[in-house]
Design brief:
single chain; alpha/beta; Rossmann fold; seven-stranded mixed β-sheet; 10 strands; 30% helix; methyltransferase; MT21E methyltransferase; methyltransferase activity; transferase
């Protein structure tokens, strides 16, 4: 079953027939052809398989996870694929990442959502753990969903990542997080995450070494 679903997920990716002056990859999600411009010299400008897993979940579970008119923030949005799919499914999306990635992120989002979405997504800078209250004040920022794909890997900002999850998450916020398991140090982040949040594995793909989690604040999952 894992291999069949993984084949379906990876089958959503396609490549141009003719090499253009700008490298791009194509994807089929939410009834649309999505073209993503990438850069191979930066982790954040490449579409990783975890993003495909999350997009596939959003599309195939649109009834139990209805995004229409929901307020969604994606952290570490990278190329913007997850934010684009969430927008095409009716959400009001804020796509965030580091300042050096915002140009390509904005380009991809505009190219794939303009006049196609109920709510035009916005792009905003978010450096994990920095100026959170200033840029995303708790009193006025309320997100129904926080989405993250492949934000845990070998980088020195895992503490700041956890702080960001904590800051953005209200009592009724749902976190959807696709994670590729790599090294033990990063894997231990899951244990630390569970000190603040209840965690439920929604999907597991051993052949990709990727798990998709749903999380809420401690004690709020059943409520």
């Amino acid at each position: 079953e894992d291999e069949e679903v993984v084949a379906e997920i990876l089958g959503r990716r396609f490549f141009p027939d003719v090499i253009a002056y700008k490298a791009w990859e194509g994807f089929h999600f939410a009834g649309h052809e999505i073209r993503i411009t990438e850069a191979t010299d930066c982790y954040g400008a490449v579409v990783w398989p975890s993003a495909l897993v999350l997009c596939y979940f959003l599309e195939t579970n649109s009834k139990q996870c209805n995004l229409v008119d929901k307020n969604v923030i994606e952290i570490g949005a990278g190329t913007g694929l997850v934010s684009i799919v969430a927008s095409l499914l009716g959400a009001f999306v804020t796509a965030t990442d580091l300042p050096e990635l915002l140009g390509n992120l904005q380009h991809n989002i505009l190219q794939n959502t303009k006049q196609k979405c109920k709510h035009q997504p916005c792009v905003k800078e978010l450096s994990w753990g920095i100026d959170l209250e200033k840029n995303f004040p708790r009193s006025s920022c309320h997100f129904d969903y926080i989405m993250a794909a492949d934000v845990v890997y070998h980088h020195p900002f895992l503490d700041e990542l956890l702080l960001t999850f904590d800051h953005l998450c209200k009592d009724d916020t749902v976190i959807l997080w696709a994670m590729k398991f790599r090294l033990e140090n990063e894997n231990r982040f899951v244990d630390r995450f569970q000190t603040l949040f209840d965690l439920e594995m929604v999907s597991n793909f051993p052949s990709l070494n990727i798990a998709l989690y749903k999380a809420m604040r401690k004690g709020r999952m059943k409520a």
